[in-house]
Structures are given as C-alpha cells and as structure tokens.
Amino acid sequence: MADKVLMKGNEAIAEAALVAGCRHYFGYPITPQTEIAAYMAKRMPKIGGTFLQAESEIAAINMVYGVASAGYRVMTSSSSPGISLKGEGLSYLAGADLPALVVNVQRGGPGLGGIQPSQSDYFQATRGGGHGDYHMIVLAPASVQEMAELTVKGFELADTYRMTAMILADGTMGQMMEPVALDFDVAPAPEKPWATTGTDMKRPHNIINSLSLVPEELEQLNFARYEKYRKIEENEPRYEAYLMEDADICIAAFGIAARVAKNAVNEARREGIRAGLIRPITLWPFPKKAFREAADRVSAMISVELSMGQMIEDVKLASECRVPVTLCNRAGGMIPSPKQVLAAIRQAAGKEGDLL
Amino acid sequence: MKEKRITLFCGHYGSGKTNVAVNYALWLKKRHERVTVADLDIVNPYFRTKDSLPLFRAMEIGLIASPFANSNLDIPALPQEMYAVTDDRGLYAVLDVGGDDRGALALGRLTPAILEEGNYEMLAVVNRYRPLTQTVADTVEVLREVENAAGLRFTGVVNNSNLGGETTAGTVLASLGYAEEVSAALCVPLVMTTFVENLKEALTGRVPHPFTLQLQPKIQ
To answer: Which domains does chain A carry?
Structure first.
C-alpha cells in the first residue's frame, strides 16, 4: 500500500468516514457529491458495513436517525437541494440529541440551480437548516486532506456533544483531486448509555424522541441544549490565520474561496499591501474572537464568498462594526478570481489605480 | 506501439483517461492528418475532453462531444456524431470512455462495428495511487467489469500512476512492478508509462514505453 493516495474530495470524505468507524451510510445520488455514495457502495459490502441507496433524501436522513439512536456512527451526504429535503430530519436529530455526520457538497441555487460550486447554503447550515431552536457544528474544509481530517473530527465532535456535525464543502472541493494521507488517530466512540441497544431487563427503557407534551419541559430542554451550545462556542471554534500578525486588510474566506483569497493576499503583499486572511474552519461555532481581535488592528475587512454575501453578516457581528466590511463575491456556480480579490484588496487599501 | 485506427481509453474513475487521451491525440496528429477525439463519458459532468476544445480547434483535431458536456445539464447524453467513429474509416479516432463499468456501457452500441472492423486498441489506464485500485487484484477486478460492460477485451495497459502535484520520479518508479503485474494478470502488454514533462530527464531510460504528458497541453 502506498503512503499517500490521489483522491477526489468526495472520495476522501467517504474513506475517512470508514477510518472513523462509520459502517452505515444512507444517501441518494446528486451531483456534485455522487462519488461519496458510489465509493460507499463499493466499499461497505466488503467490510461488513451497510450502504443503502434510499428512495429519497428524506428516507435517508430518517435511516440516519435510526442508526444514530442505536448508538452507531452514521452518515449521509447530499448537495444543496437534497439537504433542503433533509431539513425536517436535521431538526428531529437535534430535537432527539442524536450524533450524526451530514455532508453538503454545495452547488449553485436557489431551486434546482446548477451543478457548479457554491457557498450559498451558509445561512442554512449555520442557522440549523430545519425548524426550531438548534445548531449543527459546521466544518468547512479547504483541501482534500482537510476533507478527510474534518470528516473524522466531525464524527468525534458529534459524539462528544450528541449533535449533528455537518461538512460544508462545495463542488470544487468535492471534485478536485489531491494527494491524501489517511493515517489519522481516531478517538474511539464514547460510551452511549442513552442508545436503544436493548435493556437485557437490567435497566429502564431508553426512548429516543423529539416530541415533548409539556411546554415547561420542552423549554427546559431548549435551555439545556443552548447551555451546551455556549460551551461549544467557547471551546470549539477553529480557524487558520494567514499573515495576520501585521495585517492592515483582513480577508474572511472559507473553503475554495480561501484558496483563491490566499493567492490574492500573496499578490497584494508583493505590491506592498499588508493583507492577511482569517479562514474559519468551523462556521458554527464561528471564530468570533479572531475577528473581534483583528478588528482592533486592521483598517478594513473583506468577505470573499461564492454567494450573494452570507458569512459577511457573521463577520460584521463578530467585528462589532469597528471597521468597514465589504463583499467580494461571485454567485450561481461562479468562482471569484484572484484578480477580483486583489482588486477588492487594493480598493480597501485606497489604491484603486489598477482596478479590473 | 503501432497505432490502430481506433484507440479506446478506459479504466477506473479518476485514473487519468481524459488527460492521456488528449495527449495521445496530439501525438497521433503528428502522424496522421485526420484525428478526432470522441468524448463518450456518460458518468462525470466535469473535467471533460471538451475542456480542450480551443486546443483541438487550433490543432485541427476533431471533437465529438455531447452538447451538454460542461453545462449545467447533468444527463448521460451521447452525441449522434459518435457513429462517425466506426462509419468513417478514414479517421483516426481516440475514444475517451467514462469511468468503471458504468462508463463503459456507453460503448455497447459501437462494439459490434469496432469488432467487425478489427482495427482497434483498447487501453486500460491505471493509477496505483488511486484509493480503489491500489492492489493488482482490485485493479483487475475493476478492469474486468469494464470489459464485460464494453463487450471488448483490453489489448494493452497504460501506467498512469501519479500523485498529482506531488509526483516525483520515485512515485513513477515505485509503480513499475504494479503495472507489470496488472499487464501480466490481463495477459496484455504494457504499452505506455506516462509522466509529466519535468520528470523527463529523471525517468528517460528508466521506465518502459515512456510517454510524456502535458497537464494543460499547449497549442503547438
């Protein structure tokens, strides 16, 4: 066996899920994430796992609910329109406090949209996606290696906090090929005394349910869940800071946009503009502190996104409006070019001479 | 390798069929006047031979591709012009076939004419650094499925083993044994060992049947 393998982002997610001990996958094909299902279809039968192509995304997410209730690591994946279909199930998983990993390899929308990459499901992912008061842990990889690493991390976080973790990738991340090392240390799944594994007549029944008949009790459940979320916001924000030590212009970008932005930052540095990048790796919990601290040191922020501007709202909230925040974006399946980002950096730095 | 009138590039998803096919068409164009590439990929809507359309136009290489390739319409459509591959025997045709057995299904309706004419080469493009074809046994399993779906047997192996941007001479050299074993298991010769141009110096004389690839071929 070779040390590294050449993988598509989608394949890296699938293989990493197997490394993390996931033996149950339910899904429904949709471009640009179909390779995840195809990979699972090939591999699961060979290692004693379960691959099932469900009749719909809604069926798949409810199968995830079932396996999560039984205490096993379980995953489903889809792309934007399919994630909308899973919305009800995501809310039920939250209401029942079940750990699961859900992958969204985003495409352009709204509606059926297109099959080219997008980041326009940011609101949907970071605000929960379904109805009710809840959050998911949202992880945003920016390389194929990170697709694999964050998949393992996603399972671990989901188990630790008994909640859904989502990998929020995009069509580019799913389709691009890069060398990957898969030798991770995986924390074994913790004991799950709440799971429906059979009582052996030795303990009371465990009941997995998201229905509460008494509003006072439902309120207490929501309070407790938000106390958990507060701890996650304290302990789990992750981000990469690139050339931020002396930065005057701060770019905010995740996933593929961050890769484009990094090139633009390097180019701006060559022109003598002190640009830097904060790349959120967790979109929820959002790395608020990093942006709040940067806001005292930089003169402007630019949110680079493959959407009409969604993360920019979190950047503004986190920086408490201490510096102007502008948007540099493309939408509908288009990707900003390094030149476009560089032009936005020049503008923010007051050097507008050479705009596109 | 003595080129045949029809050359089919088949294999596992992501083994590099499209890039090898494009480079092979450029090589073929230096030897024959009429060269056409046919994109028969019904599986993957991205990274198609159609990406090379400007190159083909400049080099006067024909391209037969679905009008929907590289568009937002993700359907497994084949162009009617694909029959030129077997009908027009004055043509040197390079076929870029979709991945795995699913992709090879598209060959079904061309197979009888290809067999009847009997002037073809069907090449198995392999990369030992792809996750599902790292062992000889796994690779042969995928390739046998491709043959069954296509209704054609492989006639040669193309060793396209690489790790993308991290490929070194050592990466290629470490794959030679694997490629030989795949070739022996299929009972067909190894016809090409591919590598990118910047490894040419390091690998010349050290690999069998070298074939230099341009990742983004330039108009010559």
So the answer is: 4-235 (3.40.50.970), 240-348 (3.40.50.920)
| Angle value at C-alpha A180, between A179 and A184, nearest 5 degrees | 165
**Interface check A8 vs B, CB under 8 A:** yes
Walking along chain A (356 residues) 10 residues at a time, the average pLDDT comes out as 85 97 97 96 97 97 98 98 98 98 97 96 94 98 98 98 98 96 90 96 95 97 98 98 98 98 98 98 98 98 98 98 97 97 96 57
Please report how many Cα atoms fall inside a 13 Å half-sphere around the Cα of residue B35, on the Cβ side.
23
* C-alpha B90 chain-centroid distance: 21
Q: Does residue B13 belong to the interface with chain A, where contact is any CB pair within 8 Å? A: yes
Q: What is the ipTM of this complex?
A: 0.91
Rounded CA-CA distance A333/A338 in Å is 16
Q: Flag if B14 and A8 touch (Cβ within 8 Å).
A: yes
* Three-class secondary structure assignment of chain B: CCCCCEEEEEECCCCCHHHHHHHHHHHHHCCCCCEEEEEECCCCCCCCHHHHHHHHHHHCCEEECCCCCCCCCCCCCCCHHHHHHHHCCCCEEEEEECCHHHHHHHHCCCHHHHHHHCCEEEEEEECCCCHHHCCHHHHHHHHHHHHHHHCCCCCEEEECCCCHHHCCHHHHHCCHHHHHHHHHHHCCCEEEEEEEHHHHHHHCCCCCCEEEECCCCCCC
Residue A1 and residue B131: Cβ atoms within 8 Å?
no
* Per-residue pLDDT band at B1 (split at 50, 70, 90): low
* Straight-line distance from the first to the last Cα atom of chain A, in angstroms, rounded to the nearest whole number: 48
A137 contacts A110 by C-beta, under 8 angstroms: no
Q: Going by DSSP bridges, is the β-strand pair A4-8/A177-181 parallel, antiparallel, or unpaired? A: antiparallel
- CB-based contact A114 B129, cutoff 8 Å: no
Q: Which CATH architecture has domain B6-213?
A: 3-Layer(aba) Sandwich (3.40)
pLDDT tens, residue by residue, B106-149 = 998 899 999 999 999 999 999 999 999 999 999 999 999 999 99
How many angstroms separate the CA atoms of B200 and B198, rounded? 6
Domain boundaries, chain B: 6-213
pLDDT in tens, B195-220: 999 999 999 999 999 999 998 887 76
